[in-house]
Amino acid sequence: MIRPVEERYRTVRDVFPELRVELVNGRIVVNEPGTWQHNTIIAQLIAQLAPVVAGRGWEIWPNITVHLGDEADRYVPDLTIVPQEPVMETDEAVHGASTLLLVDVVSAGNAYDDHVIKPMGYAPAGVPLYLVVDPFQRLLKLHSDPAPSGYGRETVEPAGAPLTLPHPWDCAIDTTCLLNL
């Protein structure tokens, strides 16, 4: 049986297919397209990650829902990196445990969701790495080692310091160019 909020979420998603519609902590959140700064950060991240992703046969998906469980929220990160043939719940939703890295760039209205709510939803779903890029605090926060109770590790790097992504990535993100807008 579909929950009433899930039904409303699907309706809003169908009415506004061009926008990112999420179900966050029981709230329907409609995200407008990002600012030029937001999009520049995403483009710079893609440029840094693309060689590793292409070399390993992975894919970067900029607009896909992450399935966290049948009764869970529905998040749409700014970037989702998946392996070849990820496990899909539907054509529009990839299983969280079947991702390699999720990335959100904090916007003025979603800081609490990106820093607090989403890690609590991603970890129990088995999302291995969740990266939050916060241009307001000028830092990157990488959540790793997921468990049902939350992420076991949180690595925070300020702008200018490299952020190392663990296995299977084994590479570093240059944070200097990301947050110097």
TrEMBL record:
**Is the Hydrolase keyword given for this protein?**
yes
Among its keywords, does the record have Phosphoprotein? Answer: no
Q: Which part of the chain is the Putative restriction endonuclease domain?
A: 16-166
Sorted UniProt keywords: Endonuclease, Hydrolase, Nuclease
InterPro entries on file: Nuclease_put_TT1808 (IPR012296), Restrct_endonuc-II-like (IPR011335), Uma2 (IPR008538)
One example of the protein's molecular function in GO is: endonuclease activity
What single Pfam family name could you report for this chain, choosing any that match? Uma2
Identify this protein by name.
Answer: Uma2 family endonuclease
